[in-house]
Amino acid sequence: MSATTLTLAARIAEVACVTDAFALADARVLESYFDEYRLAADPQLLHDVADAMAALVPEDAEALAGVELGGVPLVVALSAATGLPAAFLRRVPKRYGSRRQVEGAAVEGRRIVLVDDVVRSGGQLLAMSRMLRVAGAPVADALCVLERPLGGRRLLDDHGVRLHPLLVEADLPTQSRAAS
């Protein structure tokens, strides 16, 4: 890792890695977690993370799609950093108003890169990639700030989605690894 990435990892750990109980959707409980809202609430850190993630965006990307809710501030910042249009993905279609599941930029026919905060099991990104593929948007890549080694990369690989994390858990300073 470069000195810049080490510094960024330390800043992310200081701001967004929290030691406290965190319940996963599958009922497992972690002793610590990555709090994407703390990262998004720090404008300079969000800007610096987006700039670093911009280098991970594949050259053939035509649009970015942020997964609700943690991926939305990231995709807005990354869109500003790259100039690529952004779409916003809901887990389920809105029940009123537009009734859409995808908001923002049009996705049909565009090569979309998924954006989320942290990848653990990969289930959420897999569901969003399937939804986008059904909508006519090829998805082959996903970006995240932090990858935890809980099977997500393997699941995504098995379904044709390459994961590009800015950081993996081992990149965090030793005292913060438990808090991701």
From TrEMBL:
Pathway: Pyrimidine metabolism; UMP biosynthesis via de novo pathway; UMP from orotate: step 1/2. The keyword Metal-binding does not apply. 5-phospho-alpha-D-ribose 1-diphosphate binds at residues 90, 94, 116-124. Keywords: Glycosyltransferase, Magnesium, Pyrimidine biosynthesis, Transferase. It catalyses: orotidine 5'-phosphate + diphosphate = orotate + 5-phospho-alpha-D-ribose 1-diphosphate. One of its GO terms (biological process) is 'de novo' UMP biosynthetic process. Orotate binds at residue 148. Its cofactor is Mg(2+). Residues 42-149 form the Phosphoribosyltransferase domain. It is an enzyme of class 2 (transferase). Belongs to the purine/pyrimidine phosphoribosyltransferase family. PyrE subfamily. Catalyzes the transfer of a ribosyl phosphate group from 5-phosphoribose 1-diphosphate to orotate, leading to the formation of orotidine monophosphate (OMP). This is Orotate phosphoribosyltransferase. It comes from Streptomyces harbinensis.
